[in-house]
Design goal:
The complex is a heterotrimer of chains A (about 350), B (about 350) and C (about 325). The relative contact order of chain A is 0.14. Chain A is built from twelve helices and twelve strands. With about 350 residues, chain A is α/β, with parallel strands linked by helices. Chain B has about 350 residues and is mainly alpha-helical. In chain B, helix 3 (about 45-60) crosses helix 13 (about 325-350), helix 5 packs antiparallel against helix 11 (about 260-295) and helix 10 packs antiparallel against helix 11 (about 260-295). The longest helix of chain B is centred in the C-terminal third of the chain and has 38 residues, at about 260-295. In chain C, about 30% of the residues lie in helices and about 25% in strands. Chain C has eleven helices and twelve strands. Chain C is globular and about 70 Å long. The two termini of chain C are about 20 Å apart. Classes of the chains: A alpha/beta (about 350), B mainly alpha (about 350), C alpha/beta (about 325). Chains in contact: A-B, A-C, B-C. The interface of A and B includes residues 16, 17 and 280 of A.
Chain lengths: ~350, ~350, ~325
């Protein structure tokens, strides 16, 4: 049985302009110790989904319309608030994008770590302080004892994020949800943090749900990836296969348009024309159709459902598409097309 | 790169001249029109504006109204409760004594005399212990409040904005000096200042002759010295943040002079906050005047203001007999005005916020 | 070939609150030929943005000079000179006046020049918008009504409307959605070809810099540590920092740097002695035996490339 199973999550927001559907249809399953990535850009609903499954969204403007979030069998959406608080922090850990705003500016790192520990365990404060020091050492912060007394603004961005990871993992949660944890950081610091997360995952067996817009980042890190666009999952599967042979036009277009250090310099970058859709004005058919190069008429009439990709895809000889799900009626043509021409 | 267009000819295509003419016909929708529309859409803003306009109008035409004089005393022993107007619509007692009036008011009074003769209405809101009509006093008192508000607004808009803008644009030493001055002035306990100035300015001159500077003059002096301070701070903050805004830096890379940047970029972006702040600080000035008058340091008899009325009203509350109409009238009038200003300020702030786009 | 832009020993220092000095940019020299493109890469604290701002005339240098066609260039230069160097900023929303229609912002540089009539100025602004792939009718809209990609195109149009020779771009794609970045990158390459522009492209995104610029300079803690044509820098980087930087860029199908660069950059308030990178240098074993901790390596030219490293210089045999 998987550790986390999310099904049919739908989230809407009440805005002055009316109700906006932020997440149409979100589902994910994560096994113990596994890393799963959620990839998408702004407006895709990836962050909203992650916050919603832990009920961290403020529920007057946000509304979880339907969905099941089964953590080790228990539906988090049905739990009373008090029990949910116990789950959060103890079994679910969180790391957010901007450590400057997610760390309390007026409390020292040590105090915040101790608070994180003491909320879930009744131990003497001295013991908690000791654990806090070990936690900082574990995430690679040099001289942890004196760092306990530091305020967040006295640390660099990379160190703040390490402190956040320490706080998230100090209670040994089963699942760590990391929302764009490295987006605001330099690329060398990002590499350090990825190595750190992988090491901690090996040592503690924590599962990780990694949310990002960077497909290249997840390709070496996450075993499975879900690609989101305009509030729905459009493709999911094994990361290595997904980036080698994408089955959804958006995934393919993304892979082609984001330059890497080895992309050929001849000719212009393949672009995705247009811009991501406005969540306040959803379209009737597939949300990607206006920008897609594989559209047929049926694309504008109906939203395609997320279905398993059939293993017998013509032109995909030698390509494994095990456990791939895609929301596109033209996926066969997409798989057959090369990513790099 | 061998066929790069020559300088001056990159964008010289005539087709765009035609497009330019077409577009010249369609003016860009003005942001101020958008503000007006948004304000009008909000009920609280509409009603606030109506109340305030009605108040201003009433305070201007009050000499025209067939009301008893605010200073006219009839020394009955008891204050009279509000009387239904239709019981005694007009009586023949006519008290033209309004105290010293300026020529415009005198003209209005003479118009009234011709229109209504000796008639005036009875006490709509009752009278106080000295027989003075409460409604008339509220309306005449509103003049003082509005005058104070106007004066504070003027000093804020002139001294406050200029001070804040110069401090925001100047080098840090001058900025520091200017803002420390603001700090010092803001830390003055104004009540003591009023008392001090009153006694100081009313002390006999060396030659022995008595001087008399009215409390009102001193009061307005102090208001003038102090009411522009918050505006100066706000404007300075806004100007400082605008100075380092990317669009101002972009203008500098284009060789814009400081005066251009101030005129074209800083002023339009500071104006909204000035307006909002104005409507939000006027209530405190009005309240302050009422407070000082309540303490007896503001307006003196026979002039009347809402603070004076509140003071009289407070005296009127005793365990033996409650003349509830005496504090209630002025309290409601002042409360409504302060609320209207606050709601209007709120609505203005939302209406002026460019980023809250609407479909 | 004389260079369009020549920067000589540029230093920018800021006084810190406690009396110390922040050495944001130290001894930076570079040159860009007319129509050339130089990428300036580095991480936070490298001084690349400050360098760009100093070259754009937004920041007066503490030492050194900036020469445009041999003439000194800075915040005090005449308007006609300043309009030869334009800048595109990182945040497209912040770089446009929120209370003006975007057409006004694009016309502003022309209005400052006071060239031609209002109608011709407007026509030129509209043509610039069109050249950047925007419908000229968008000129009537306000910035908050446009998408991020559109706003950045407006900013580029504004930079182009005065026909500059050098455009300084400070992280022009970082604030944009991933799916929109390719559009802007292609646009920048097209415009450069079409109008013969020279670019100084500052970014931390190495893949984008590689697409746009023929030469790349790598900065660390205020200094240039390596400069090379892109054909060399990305295939055979020589400076240990450049190597670590390239290894840290996520690539599809490759596990991220197995031994990532350790530590954090030192503070510009207190740079390490000698080579600023030596505390983190992966070739640490060789460091102590060398001058790395004692002597600042000079930026030495090797043909079309330059390198500031005691260690790598010793093993330079490759062309």
């Amino acid at each position: 049985m998987s550790l986390l199973e999310v099904r049919n999550l739908r989230v809407s927001f009440a805005t002055p302009r009316g109700t906006v559907q932020a997440v149409e249809n979100f589902g994910v399953s994560i096994d113990a110790g596994e890393t799963v990535a959620l990839v998408g850009e702004s407006g895709s609903g990836k962050s909203v989904s992650a916050l919603a499954l832990a009920r961290l969204l403020p529920t007057p403007p946000a509304r979880i319309e339907t969905g099941e979030v089964l953590l080790a069998g228990r539906d988090l959406l049905q739990l009373p608030e008090r029990e949910l608080e116990r789950v959060r922090g103890k079994e679910l850990g969180f790391v957010f994008q901007d450590p400057t705003s997610s760390l309390h500016p007026l409390m020292t790192i040590g105090e915040q770590l101790e608070e994180a520990i003491l909320v879930h365990q009744r131990i003497p404060r001295v013991t908690a302080r000791q654990r806090a020091e070990w936690a900082l050492a574990e995430v690679g912060i040099a001289d942890p004892k004196s760092r306990l007394a530091a305020f967040p603004h006295q640390l660099s961005g990379g160190m703040r994020q390490r402190a956040m990871i320490a706080m998230a993992l100090v209670t040994r949660p089963k699942l760590l949800i990391a929302d764009e944890p490295t987006t605001a950081l330099d690329v060398t610091v990002q590499a350090q943090l990825v190595a750190l997360l992988q090491k901690l995952q090996r040592e503690h067996g924590t599962a990780i749900l990694l949310i990002t817009h960077d497909l290249a980042l997840v390709s070496g890190f996450a075993r499975r990836t879900h690609v989101m666009y305009a509030g729905s999952v459009v493709e999911s599967g094994l990361t290595s296969e997904l980036v080698a042979r994408p089955a959804h036009p958006y995934t393919r277009a993304l892979l082609r348009s984001v330059p890497s250090l080895s992309t050929s310099l001849a000719g212009a970058l393949p672009v995705i024309s247009g811009a991501p859709p406005d969540p306040a004005h959803p379209s009737i058919g597939c949300a990607f159709a206006p920008r897609c190069e594989f559209t047929v008429d049926s694309c504008r009439e109906r939203r395609p459902a997320l279905v398993p990709l059939s293993a017998s895809v013509p032109g995909a000889a030698g390509v494994r598409v095990q456990s791939r799900r895609v929301a596109c009626t033209e996926s066969e043509r997409v798989v057959a097309a090369e990513v790099r021409s | 790169m061998s066929s790069s267009p020559r300088k001056g000819e990159w964008f010289g295509d005539a087709t765009f001249e035609r497009v330019a003419e077409q577009l010249a016909g369609e003016q860009a929708p003005s942001l101020w029109a958008d503000v007006r529309r948004r304000l009008a859409a909000r009920a609280s803003a509409r009603w606030s504006l109506r109340w305030l306009l009605a108040l201003v109008l009433a305070s201007l035409i009050v000499p025209l109204l067939p009301l008893p004089s605010p200073a006219a005393m009839a020394l009955d022993k008891q204050p009279k409760p509000p009387m239904a107007p239709w019981v005694e619509p007009f009586n023949e007692r006519f008290e033209p004594f309004y105290g010293e009036l300026n020529p415009l008011d005198r003209a209005l009074v003479s118009v009234r005399q011709r229109a209504f003769g000796k008639k005036q209405t009875g006490p709509w809101l009752g009278t106080d212990a000295k027989g003075r009509d409460t409604l008339a006093r509220i309306l005449w008192g509103s003049r003082t409040s509005l005058l104070v508000a106007l004066f504070a607004a003027l000093t804020s808009l002139t001294i406050g904005v200029a001070w804040g803008a110069i401090a925001g644009l100047a080098r840090s030493r001058i900025d520091n000096a200017m803002m420390r001055t603001v700090d010092v002035l803001q830390s003055l306990p104004t009540i003591f200042l009023v008392i001090f100035l009153l006694s100081f300015l009313n002390a006999p001159s060396p030659s022995g002759a008595a001087r008399s500077v009215s409390r009102e003059t001193v009061f307005f002096l102090v208001i003038g010295a102090v009411s522009w301070l918050p505006m100066a701070r706000v404007v300075r903050g806004q100007v400082l943040s605008l100075r380092s805004a990317a669009f101002v830096e972009a203008a500098r890379t284009q060789g814009a002079s400081t005066s251009w940047i101030v005129r074209a970029h800083i002023v339009p972006n500071v104006l909204p906050i000035v307006l909002v702040y104005l409507t939000l600080t006027l209530p405190s000035v009005i309240l302050y005047e009422a407070f000082l008058s309540f303490l007896g340091l503001g307006v003196e008899a026979p002039k009347v203001s809402w603070g004076v009325l509140a003071a009289d009203g407070a005296e009127a509350i005793s365990p033996l007999a409650t003349f509830w109409w005496l504090p209630l009238g002025p309290a409601l009038a002042m409360g409504a005005t302060l609320l209207a200003l606050g709601l209007l300020g709120d609505a203005l702030r939302d209406a002026l916020d460019v980023k809250r786009g609407e479909a | 070939m004389s260079a369009l832009l020549k920067v000589e020993n540029l230093c920018v220092r800021f006084p810190a609150r406690d009396g110390r000095t922040v050495h944001a940019v130290e001894d930076v020299s570079l040159s860009i030929p007319a129509g050339g493109a130089l990428g300036l890469v580095g991480e936070s604290g490298s001084g690349k943005s400050t360098t760009a701002r100093a070259i754009a005339g937004l920041q007066a240098p503490s030492a050194g000079r900036v020469l445009l066609d041999g003439e000194p260039f800075g915040p005090d230069s005449a308007r006609s000179a300043r309009q030869r160097v334009q800048m595109v900023f990182q945040d497209p929303q912040g770089s446009l006046d929120p209370r003006r229609p975007v057409g006004w912002s694009v016309e502003e540089p022309l209005a400052l020049q006071d060239a031609g009539t209002a109608m011709t100025r407007r026509a030129r602004a509209l043509a610039a918008l069109d050249a950047c792939g925007l419908d000229p009718r968008l000129a009537l809209r306000y910035p908050h009504e446009l998408s991020g990609g559109q706003r950045q195109r407006v900013a580029i149009a504004r930079a182009l409307v005065v026909e500059p020779e050098l455009v300084i771009l400070d992280e022009p794609t970082s604030a944009l959605d991933v799916s929109v970045r390719a559009q802007v990158v292609n646009l920048l390459c097209d415009l450069r070809q079409r109008f013969g522009l020279a670019y100084l492209f500052v970014s931390h995104d190495l893949a984008v810099v590689r697409r746009v610029c023929e030469d790349v300079a790598v900065m660390y803690l205020g200094r240039i540590v390596e400069r090379a044509p892109r054909s060399e820098l990305f295939t055979s980087p020589r400076h240990p920092y450049t190597r670590a930087l390239l290894a840290a860029v996520p690539e599809i199908g490759r596990d991220l740097a197995l031994a990532p660069l350790a530590g954090e950059p030192a503070s510009p308030l207190a740079p390490p002695s000698g080579c600023a990178f030596h505390p983190r240098c992966p070739r640490r074993a060789e460091v102590s035996a060398n001058r790395c901790s004692l002597e600042l390596p000079a930026l030495e030219e090797h043909g079309s490339a330059a390198l500031a490293c005691h260690l790598a210089a010793q093993s330079v045999t490759r062309p």
